């Protein structure tokens, strides 16, 4: 059977079972194993087992449950509440000040937890009611929380970056360093958009009335709220960049910081640790099954010889190497609307990475572009995870249509940021080159 027919049947089978609602890991692994058996026979399973065995021996994998556990504990402390109060006091007197403060808190949360949903849930619970009570336009308030919440997978530490490193073989430390400047860039671009729009349309995000504004002593006392988050960020990122720990060891430092935060906020309880541990086991188990499926998919895909087919198709795209990169970004952007980020990584990276490297592009730079696209996927309909996190906690008067409409200008801002990083790769590569 020709490679074209095999490829068509393979991806059609994947799509069919995914549309039936079956779990991604079992669809990806199951279809891959069936195709492996009928193309290469029973002996091909040894190749899958060998690859899985090699991955399970990776020290980097230990970082995943540690970062997840850190995020689960930090979700249950009072860090987000105190941070919002501090931002409320410092920024509330400005037009759009609460929105800007919420963006800042989302960036701090992203630098602590490494996953997307934590900041969305925390800010949707704390900041959204506060903004709506003070006359903020609901599209502005929803869009800010949706956008800032997605930064958890871009601003390190990031679970997706660890998975990208495992799949592609690049350095986790370099990926973490590469995510810092793009994260800052996206935060600045979003803040500029909010400031300009609130200047042109003051009714969207009014400043707090005089009687609600804080005195300078109150503002300075509120700054204590940032000490613990900054401490956790320094323990994780500072130890990696300073060369004190590996990313895996830094994850353990992050857990220590989260436990100290829980103790300071008097949330260091057996019930909190138990719930965080159970949720960590569930998430880690899911990730491990997806990794097993990834190896089966990679083995099946390579054994069919589809790599040559994809490379020949990519070479037909006009615009040369840059045309190919742009086409990849468009494909990932469209996939992110309907699939979860881990599934997209497993399906596309085995295809894209050999092409990216053969064209002479930096895999770290491409990884940042990929992760930003995944971040946009978290906030775009119909299946963006952040949309559903937000829908679960918004007041009854806000519909899913309101949430969908709120993200349009913020997605455009993110795309502008993505374009700047494509045009100026140094935004992503400068820190990795400096520290490593």
UniProtKB/TrEMBL annotation:
<dbReference type="InterPro" id="IPR010656">
    <property type="entry name" value="DctM"/>
</dbReference>
<feature type="transmembrane region" description="Helical">
    <location>
        <begin position="250"/>
        <end position="268"/>
    </location>
</feature>
<feature type="transmembrane region" description="Helical">
    <location>
        <begin position="52"/>
        <end position="74"/>
    </location>
</feature>
<feature type="domain" description="TRAP C4-dicarboxylate transport system permease DctM subunit">
    <location>
        <begin position="12"/>
        <end position="427"/>
    </location>
</feature>
<dbReference type="InterPro" id="IPR004681">
    <property type="entry name" value="TRAP_DctM"/>
</dbReference>
<feature type="transmembrane region" description="Helical">
    <location>
        <begin position="322"/>
        <end position="352"/>
    </location>
</feature>
<keyword id="KW-1133">Transmembrane helix</keyword>
<feature type="transmembrane region" description="Helical">
    <location>
        <begin position="7"/>
        <end position="40"/>
    </location>
</feature>
<comment type="subunit">
    <text>The complex comprises the extracytoplasmic solute receptor protein and the two transmembrane proteins.</text>
</comment>
<keyword id="KW-0813">Transport</keyword>
<keyword id="KW-0997">Cell inner membrane</keyword>
<keyword id="KW-1003">Cell membrane</keyword>
<comment type="function">
    <text>Part of the tripartite ATP-independent periplasmic (TRAP) transport system.</text>
</comment>
<feature type="transmembrane region" description="Helical">
    <location>
        <begin position="222"/>
        <end position="244"/>
    </location>
</feature>
<dbReference type="Pfam" id="PF06808">
    <property type="entry name" value="DctM"/>
</dbReference>
<dbReference type="GO" id="GO:0005886">
    <property type="term" value="C:plasma membrane"/>
</dbReference>
<feature type="transmembrane region" description="Helical">
    <location>
        <begin position="364"/>
        <end position="383"/>
    </location>
</feature>
<feature type="transmembrane region" description="Helical">
    <location>
        <begin position="280"/>
        <end position="302"/>
    </location>
</feature>
<feature type="transmembrane region" description="Helical">
    <location>
        <begin position="403"/>
        <end position="424"/>
    </location>
</feature>
<feature type="transmembrane region" description="Helical">
    <location>
        <begin position="176"/>
        <end position="196"/>
    </location>
</feature>
<keyword id="KW-0472">Membrane</keyword>
<keyword id="KW-0812">Transmembrane</keyword>
<feature type="transmembrane region" description="Helical">
    <location>
        <begin position="140"/>
        <end position="164"/>
    </location>
</feature>
<comment type="similarity">
    <text>Belongs to the TRAP transporter large permease family.</text>
</comment>
<protein>
    <recommendedName>
        <fullName>TRAP transporter large permease protein</fullName>
    </recommendedName>
</protein>
<feature type="transmembrane region" description="Helical">
    <location>
        <begin position="109"/>
        <end position="128"/>
    </location>
</feature>
<dbReference type="GO" id="GO:0022857">
    <property type="term" value="F:transmembrane transporter activity"/>
</dbReference>
């Amino acid at each position: 059977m020709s490679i074209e027919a095999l490829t068509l049947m393979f991806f059609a089978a994947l799509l069919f079972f995914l549309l039936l609602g079956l779990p991604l890991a079992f669809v990806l692994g199951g279809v891959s194993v069936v195709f492996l058996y009928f193309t290469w026979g029973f002996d091909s399973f040894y190749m899958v087992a060998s690859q899985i065995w090699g991955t399970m021996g990776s020290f980097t994998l230990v970082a995943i449950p540690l970062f997840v556990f850190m995020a689960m504990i930090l979700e249950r402390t009072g860090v987000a509440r105190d941070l919002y109060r501090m931002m409320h006091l410092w920024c509330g007197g400005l037009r759009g000040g609460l929105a800007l403060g919420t963006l800042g808190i989302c960036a701090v949360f992203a630098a602590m937890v490494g996953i997307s949903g934590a900041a969305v849930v925390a800010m949707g619970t704390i900041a959204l009611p506060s903004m709506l009570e003070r006359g903020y336009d609901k599209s502005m308030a929803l869009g800010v929380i949706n956008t800032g919440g997605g930064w958890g997978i871009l601003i390190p530490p990031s679970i997706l970056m660890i998975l990208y490193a495992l799949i592609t073989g690049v350095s986790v430390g370099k990926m973490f360093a590469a995510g810092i400047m793009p994260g800052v860039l996206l935060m600045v671009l979003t803040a500029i958009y909010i400031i300009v729009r609130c200047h042109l349309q003051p009714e969207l995000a009014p400043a707090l009335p005089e009687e609600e504004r804080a005195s300078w002593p109150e503002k300075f006392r509120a700054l204590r709220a940032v000490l613990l988050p900054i401490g956790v960020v320094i323990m994780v990122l500072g130890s990696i960049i300073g060369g004190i720990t590996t990313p895996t060891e830094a994850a353990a430092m992050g857990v220590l910081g989260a436990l100290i935060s829980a103790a300071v906020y008097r949330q260091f309880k057996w019930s909190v640790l138990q719930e965080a541990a159970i949720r960590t086991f569930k998430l880690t188990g899911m990730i491990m099954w997806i990794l097993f499926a990834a190896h089966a998919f990679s083995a099946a895909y390579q054994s069919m010889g589809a790599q040559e087919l994809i490379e020949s198709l990519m070479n037909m795209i006009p615009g040369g190497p840059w045309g190919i990169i742009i086409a990849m970004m468009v494909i990932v952007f469209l996939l992110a609307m309907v699939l979860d980020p881990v599934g997209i990584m497993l399906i596309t990276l085995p295809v894209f990475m050999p092409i990216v490297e053969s064209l002479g592009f930096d895999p770290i730079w491409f990884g940042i572009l990929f992760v930003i696209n995944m971040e946009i996927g978290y906030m775009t309909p119909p299946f963006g995870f952040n949309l559903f996190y937000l829908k679960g906690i918004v007041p009854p008067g806000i519909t899913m249509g309101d949430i969908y409409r709120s993200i349009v200008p913020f997605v455009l801002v993110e795309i502008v940021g993505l374009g700047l990083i494509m045009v100026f790769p140094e935004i992503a590569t400068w820190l990795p080159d400096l520290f490593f």
